[in-house]
From TrEMBL:
Keyword Transcription: yes
Keyword Transcription regulation: yes
InterPro entries to which the protein is assigned, alphabetical: AraC-type_N, Homeodomain-like_sf, HTH_AraC
Coiled coil regions, renumbered to chain: none
Protein name: Helix-turn-helix domain-containing protein
Pfam families per the UniProt record, alphabetical: Arabinose_bd, HTH_18
Family annotation (SUPFAM superfamilies): Homeodomain-like
Keyword entries, A-Z: DNA-binding, Transcription, Transcription regulation
Amino acid sequence: MSRPPPIQPDTEPLLRFEFVRGMLAALLARGLDITPYLQRAGIAADSMAQADPPGVTTGQYIALFYAIALDLQDEGLAMFSRPFKPGSFALVARVGMSAPDLRGALVRMASTVNLLQDDLQFALAENRTEAGLTMRWLHEGRHPQPFLLHTLVRVFWRLAVWLTSGALRVGHFDFAMAAPVDAAEYAVAFPGKRHYGQAVTGFWFELGQLQSPVLHDDMALRAFLSDSFGQIIAPPRLLGQVSQEARNVLLRAYPEWPDVHAVARQMHMSRATLQRQLAGEGSSLQRIKDQLRRDLAISRLSTSDTGLAAIAAELGFSDSGSFQRAFKQWTGKACGEYRRAR
């Protein structure tokens, strides 16, 4: 296993605070106290009252998700009428992976998620040229949280892309709601045409892609789920195409940590070409590794009682001490303090 060098300073752009407001919207609508969750994620409790609060780091955003989901035992963050119990997303992903092709995966996932909640009807839709996974809101007179619709489309679209090893190419995204005032901000999250004011929410692609084979196994699924909330639930990082592919190579190899030569071979390019293209996107393989290790560390400390030495080894650190120093640098909290607060 190649041991990474010391952590580089994190220059990842901050996420807009509106993403935090969206994540907390359902809790506020139910009159729940959000202060403990903000504190758990290292976000100033008075930020919600500020007219223009500062952005948050991706690590803080992921930590906020885990703080809410684990406390409420609800991966849906109180946005469904009944809890989306922990493990529900993993179940949907596993059901999809059991199908031979994308058509079967979408049908099976839609049936499963329809059993897990009562607010949206998921279905595979087809016409002469397109197919899509659609989500129809079932409650007249009560509107879903915009954050919920944006997040669900991203979750199931990215899961479908993963199941087909990146083969799926989406033509457009539909949303059964009015366009938000900051609609242009979602161009990064949804790289395709976005249509608002539609009858149903979902994503659409060429009909022939339904025959795309599902290409993953249990080991790949475990790696994917280890980083699922960092990769899918969180707003997208401003990663270029090469940077995203390099991250995917690292994730497929987890818990191994291939060096730049091995990653370049996996991407069918020379080391120099990989480094040059990453630099052109304002990134580097080490920075991508550090961001991935941070997200995985938050996941492991939030959802397991695995010892720090074992987590350090999984994440490619030489010892527990170096891992703990890195985690403190990433989150501003010691591992033990972070774990006790969950």
